[in-house]
Every structure is written in structure tokens, then in C-alpha cells.
Write a structure and sequence with these properties.
The complex is a heterodimer of chains A (356) and B (281).
Chain A (H helix, E strand, L loop, with lengths): L3 E10 L2 E11 L4 E5 L6 H9 L6 E6 L2 E2 L10 E4 L11 H11 L4 H15 L14 H13 L5 E5 L7 H18 L2 E6 L2 H7 L2 E6 L2 E6 L1 H6 L4 H6 L6 E10 L2 E6 L2 E4 L14 E6 L4 E17 L3 E8 L2 E8 L9 E6 L5 E3 L8
Parallel strand pairs in A: 3-8, 3-9, 6-7, 7-8
Antiparallel strand pairs in A: 1-2, 1-4, 4-5, 9-10, 11-12, 11-14, 12-13, 14-19, 15-16, 15-18, 16-17
Helix pairs in contact in A: 2-3, 2-4, 3-4
Chain B lengths: L1 H37 L3 H4 L14 H9 L2 H32 L5 H13 L2 H14 L6 H25 L3 H9 L4 H12 L1 H17 L2 H6 L8 H11 L4 H31 L6
Helix pairs in contact in B: 1-13, 3-13, 4-7, 4-10, 4-12, 5-7, 7-10, 8-9, 10-13, 12-13
The chains are: A alpha+beta (356), B mainly alpha (281).
Bound molecules: adenosine-5'-triphosphate and magnesium ion.
Chain lengths: 356, 281
């Protein structure tokens, strides 16, 4: 177990700058989720932490030790790759025990350790098979087994669940969470699935084009996204953005938009300087509710999804998605009013996109 | 409709088989003829009337070739040269093609192309300079010298072929091995080489067959019994005796044996490689 500290890490491939000045501090036993769209540099950052790629600058510290010039084999980390990277010529047993074999652990102890890991992941019956004879989920477990058998300072997971079907993914997600609770090892976990990020992470770093947009607790990321990108990236369906002008009458804030005025009493932000200026309001679909007052518009699309009904409302030319209960099935073209919980609204500066 | 389709399919099958059988006969006939010649008695070989199917058989040609000529030495020399060539290629080429496959160093592309350029020139063009170089370093008329000469044009083939096999082994496997505690070389030997094993064997066999059968360089670079290889020695027999057809045929038969055996190995390995290719899924 160890802390992880990344300071000013940069990475360029030739003239292509992939990581720009990454700063991350993770406490001992923490679970950091790196979240971001494809190609934003998540895997590259993981490779740098693992020592597989040299960084172009900056420091990586694991525990108290600066590992900039330490070989991957001496960093005492374990990694699960997106493609699992099981050694195809070796049995599952040898795959899991390979790290111990390399570290010259005597065979009886190694067998015991492999058995313990296999028990934990319920793959004892697969030990003699070759990776080619396993299903995707089983391979995923073997890859996990290969990581946990080593008792490393730090786990690195690169999208370990992205090859699994939806049901298995949910199961394995729970299993990883349980594993983390049980082992308490520091974990860095890459994903572009925001549900994984929210459920697993004790800290989430949202990345875009090699820059960390926000590094905070998952709840903060959800409730107070640092900018429009984070607000749009987290949440499904995505956050609504309502353009308008911020107004204050008798100390009461409201947003004047194309379809009327929205009362913002209870807003959690200090927005004094923006009164009278254009702002963007980020409104989560799940905070909207059918009501007498609020934003009004006409129903454009109704999408029942089972537990919920997604309704897209045309509010003075701007589209607003609401996640309503399964009983709320408005008709197309019908007029509708939705209440907005102002405490859950975030206002953004339309020029920079940052949260005010 | 169905009738015509199946009858035209039958026609195509027949045509295809006729062509393939014809090709097979063209390929196999010389070998059969050589074999028949090698077991004919002398009177049946040079005759007024062609003897297609001999009625008298003898292994005299084999016995004479093996016990009364320098043929065993020739074969031994060939084996040594072939073995040395494969060994040099394996030791240098495997590491070279691994680094071509994995590292991106300056001049990498140019170097790889340079390897190919060697093979663009006809062998005849390289023989004279090679001869002069070999004479100056004192490697003329030695098995080592010949093996090095073979390496000069077989190594590029070896490196390029093997690079393909290394390329197809996922890089992440080595990353995993390095995290698990291997060095780069260790990861290559423990993880990549076993995966590319079939390719490695196949590549070695191709090089071995090429070295085993090579004639031109061997003719130019060897001058004595001590290092001469079988293709050259066999050819020289034509002068020494007066066209000993039976013995030449026997020599031919013996010398294709290793090639046949090697091809049998490659073929099995190749088939195994195709069926065991399930690395990811
Ligand atoms: N070896 C390399 N040479 C050049 N560019 C590279 C190399 N590896 C990665 N890149 C580039 O770096 C950027 C980040 O890649 P990276 O693999 O870290 O993305 P990612 O966030 O992991 O994406 P994904 O979610 O698709 O896995 C990409 O634009 C990619 O093209
Ligand atoms: Mg990636």
C-alpha cells in the first residue's frame, strides 16, 4: 500500500502533446478513477505510472519513493490491461503465478498464493486451462488474479471491464469494489464509463485532451462540475444547458431565457458579478419534475425506457431533456411545465465554459 | 436450374483436379525418375531403348557413393555450413528483428530497407567482392566463411520474416511481463519467443533449406575437399568419372531427404500455428 503523487507530468510523442502538466495526489488506500473520452491520454498516463513509457517531464512518486528512473519490475505495481494480456502459451496457474516466479518465490508458497487468489475470484477449476480456452469474463478474472496475487503497492486497471457484456460488467464492478474494500490497496482505474467512475472511485479525475478538467470526489464532480465539459460528460442522459441572462430582482436571482424566466432561489453559487450578463445553466435531467411553475415548453419527444420516461421539451427554441417517472407519459406537442431544483443548478460562464 | 448448377460445378471440379494432377505430375516426375535411376543397374540407365520400369534393382549406387566417394564428407560439410548459417541467423537475426519490431530508433526504416537492398542485386554481382573480402580475411575455403557468406543474403530474409511474427505478438504481453518482474530480454525470451515459436521454426527451416541447396556461392568460395558442400561435389563428379548417372541420382536422393524432413516439420508447425492462434477474443 502506498500513496501516489504525480507532479507536473508531461508526455509528447514527437510533436504531439498527449499529456500536459498532470497533477494528482492520491491517499493511501484511495481509489482514483481516470475518466475521459477516447484518446484523451488515460492509458498513456497509466503507462507512465507503470514505467512502461518514459514521461517527457515531471515526477511520479509511489509511497515515499520517486520512481522516475525505476524499472517497471521494481516499482511493485500490478496492472490489468484492457486486453487482459494473458500469456497465451502458459496455463492459468502459471499466468497467475508468473510474477511470483519472476520474484523467485519458492514453489510451495507460490502455489499457495495462486490458490488463495483463485479462491477469491472463484477460478480454481480453470487453473490448468490455457487462456485461449476461457470466456471473456473468465479471462478478466484471471487477469485480476495475476494482479492481486502479488500484493503490490499499487494496482493499475486499464478499462478492465470494457470487453464484457452489460450484465457481467455490473457484476465485476461490484466485485472490484468488494476487492478494494477487502485488500485496501491503492488503485488507479481507467475507464470511460461514468457509472464505473461514480460507483468505484474515492477520487475521480476527468481528463480531456491531456488536461485534467477536474480532480475531486465523485459526488463533487457530479454536483459541482468544474466546467461545461465535465457537466456534459458525467450523467446520462447528459446535462441540459440552458442559455439565458442572469437577473436579480429584490435580491432574488432568476434566469431569463427564450421561453420565460426561471427562479433560481436557493442557488448554491456566488454569482454576484454575473448579474445582468449571459450565463449557461447546467440542469440535470433527473432534477426536473412535473409541476405548476418552472420552465414551460412543448413536448417534442417521449422515450419510455422502462423505469423512466425521457421527455424532450422545447423551451423557447432550446431543448431540455427531463427524466420523469414511468407514469408521466405526456403527449407529443402538449404544453408542459417542469420545476427546477435550483440547489442542483450550476451556472457556467459562456465564454470560458468554467463554473462561475 | 439446380441441375445445371451442380453439373457445371462438377465440370469445374474435374477441370481443377486435372490441372492440379497435371502440376503434381510435373513436380513429382523428376524425383521419381531420379529415384528409379538411382536403383537401376548401369546397363538399364544408358540404353538404346528407354527402360521406364526397371526389372532389376540394385543399391550399388548408394553403397558406392557412400563408401567409395567423398560424398559423406560433402554431406557433413553441408550440414555444418547449414547449421552455422542457421545459428548465426538465429543469434543475431532474432534480436535484430525483435528490436525492429519493438523499438522506434532513428534510422530504423532506412536500416530495414537496407536489409532489403542486399537482396535486390543478383547473387552473381556480389560474389566477386565477397570473394575478395573472404580471401583477405582468410575465410576462403572454410565452412565458417561459407556460412557467413550465406548469412549475408539469408539474414535479411530471416529478419523480415521473423519481424512479421514478432509484430503479431501483442505488445501488452511484454508490458505485463515487465510489470511482473521480467527485464526486456527476459520478456522477449519468456513471452514473445514462445508465442512466435512456430514462426521462428518456420523461418529457420527456410533459411536452412536455402543454405543446404545453395550452389553458386559454394562453387566460388570453396576450393578443397575440406569445405566443399554436396551440390558442388556432386557436380564435380561429372568430371571425375564419366557421367556416373546412377551415383548422381543416388546423391540427389540422399540430399533431398533432409529437405523433405524439414518441410514435414514446417508443415506440421504451420498447421499447429493456425489452430492455436487464439490469443485474444
Ligand atoms: N506510441 C504512440 N505514438 C504516438 N501517439 C500515441 C502513442 N500512444 C498513444 N498515442 C496518442 O496519444 C493519445 C492518447 O492515447 P491513449 O492511449 O492514452 O488514449 P486513451 O485515453 O487511453 O484512449 P482510450 O479510451 O481509447 O483507450 C492518442 O491521441 C494517441 O493517438
Ligand atoms: Mg486506453
Amino acid at each position: 500500500m502506498a500513496t501516489l503523487s504525480i507532479k507536473g507530468v508531461r508526455k509528447s510523442f514527437g510533436s504531439l502533446e498527449v499529456l500536459k502538466n498532470i497533477d494528482i495526489e492520491l491517499e493511501d488506500g484511495g481509489f482514483l478513477v481516470l475518466l475521459g473520452p477516447s484518446g484523451c491520454g488515460k492509458s498513456t498516463l497509466l503507462s507512465i505510472i507503470a514505467g512502461l513509457e518514459p514521461s517527457s517531464g515531471g515526477d511520479v512518486t509511489i509511497g515515499e519513493r520517486n520512481v522516475n528512473n525505476v524499472h517497471p519490475k521494481d516499482r511493485n505495481i500490478a496492472m490489468v490491461f484492457q486486453s487482459y494480456a494473458l500469456y497465451p502459451t502458459m496455463s492459468v496457474r502459471r499466468n497467475i503465478g508468473f510474477g511470483l516466479e519472476m520474484r523467485k518465490m519458492p514453489t510451495p508458497e507460490r502455489d499457495a498464493a495462486v490458490k488463495k487468489a483463485a479462491d477469491l475470484l472463484q477460478i480454481e477449476h480453470l487453473l490448468e486451462r490455457k487462456p485461449g480456452q476461457l470466456s471473456g469474463g473468465q479471462r478478466q478474472r484471471v487477469a485480476m488474479g495475476r494482479a492481486i496475487v502479488r500484493d503490490p503497492d499499487l494496482f493499475l486497471f486499464d478499462e478492465p471491464l470494457s470487453n464484457l457484456d452489460a450484465k457481467l460488467r455490473v457484476e465485476m464492478r461490484t466485485e472490484i469494489k468488494r476487492l478494494h474494500d477487502r485488500l485496501g490497496t491503492t488503485i488507479v482505474y481507467v475507464t470511460h464509463d461514468q457509472i464505473e467512475a461514480m460507483t468505484l472511485g474515492t477520487k475521480v479525475a476527468v481528463m480531456r485532451n491531456g488536461v485534467i478538467q477536474q480532480f475531486a470526489d465523485p459526488q463533487i464532480i457530479y454536483e459541482q462540475p468544474a466546467n461545461v465539459f465535465v457537466a456534459a460528460f458525467i450523467g446520462s442522459p447528459t446535462t441540459n444547458f440552458l442559455n439565458g441572462t442572469l437577473e436579480a430582482t429584490n435580491g432574488l436571482l432568476s434566469l431569463r431565457h427564450g421561453g420565460g424566466s426561471l427562479d433560481l432561489g436557493g442557488l448554491q453559487q456566488d454569482v454576484g458579478a454575473f448579474v445582468g450578463r449571459p450565463v449557461v445553466a447546467g440542469i440535470r435531467p433527473e432534477t426536473l419534475q412535473v409541476a405548476e411553475t418552472g420552465v414551460s415548453g412543448t413536448v417534442e419527444v417521449v422515450e419510455p425506457t422502462g423505469p423512466d420516461t425521457m421527455v424532450i421539451l422545447n423551451v423557447g427554441g432550446q431543448m431540455l431533456t427531463a427524466r420523469l417517472g414511468s407514469r408521466d407519459r405526456p403527449k407529443l406537442g402538449q404544453a408542459m411545465t417542469l420545476s427546477v431544483d435550483a440547489r442542483a443548478v450550476n451556472l457556467f460562464d459562456p465564454d470560458s465554459g468554467d463554473r462561475i | 436450374m439446380a441441375q445445371t448448377r451442380s453439373s457445371s460445378k462438377l465440370l469445374w471440379d474435374v477441370v481443377a483436379y486435372v490441372i492440379m494432377i497435371g502440376l503434381a505430375i510435373i513436380c513429382v516426375f523428376p524425383i521419381i525418375w531420379t529415384f528409379l535411376t538411382s536403383i537401376k543397374v548401369d546397363e538399364d540407365i544408358v540404353t538404346r531403348e528407354m527402360v521406364y520400369f526397371p526389372t532389376r534393382f540394385t543399391f550399388d549406387n548408394y553403397v558406392k557413393l557412400w563408401f567409395q566417394s567423398s560424398y559423406p564428407t560433402l554431406v557433413a560439410n553441408s550440414l555444418i555450413v547449414t547449421g552455422l548459417t542457421v545459428l548465426i541467423c538465429l543469434l543475431t537475426g532474432a534480436i535484430a528483428s525483435y528490436s525492429f519490431s519493438r523499438f522506434n530508433f532513428p534510422g530504423r526504416t532506412q536500416l530495414m530497407l537496407g536489409y532489403l537492398v542486399v537482396r535486390m542485386f543478383p547473387a552473381v554481382l556480389m560474389i566477386i567482392p565477397l570473394f575478395i573480402v573472404m580471401r583477405q580475411v582468410g575465410l576462403l575455403d572454410s565452412t565458417v566463411g561459407l556460412a557467413i557468406a550465406y548469412t549475408s543474403f539469408l539474414l535479411p530474409l530471416f529478419v523480415w520474416m521473423l519481424k512479421g511474427f514478432f509484430d503479431s505478438a501483442p505488445k501488452e504481453l511484454e508490458s505485463a511481463a515487465r510489470i511482473d518482474g521480467s527485464t526486456r530480454i527476459g520478456a522477449m525470451l519468456r513471452i514473445v519467443v514462445p508465442i512466435a515459436r512456430n514462426g521462428l521454426v518456420a523461418t529457420c527451416v527456410f533459411v536452412a533449406i536455402a543454405a543446404w541447396n545453395e550452389y553458386l556461392f559454394a562453387l566460388m568460395l570453396t576450393t578443397s575437399q575440406g569445405s566443399r558442400t554436396w551440390p558442388v561435389g556432386l557436380q564435380l563428379m561429372v568430371g571425375e568419372f564419366q557421367l556416373p548417372w546412377g551415383m548422381l541420382a543416388a546423391g540427389g536422393m540422399i540430399s533431398i531427404l533432409p529437405v523433405v524432413i524439414l518441410f514435414a516439420i514446417v508443415q506440421r508447425v504451420m498447421v499447429a500455428g493456425i489452430t492455436a492462434g487464439a490469443v485474444k477474443g
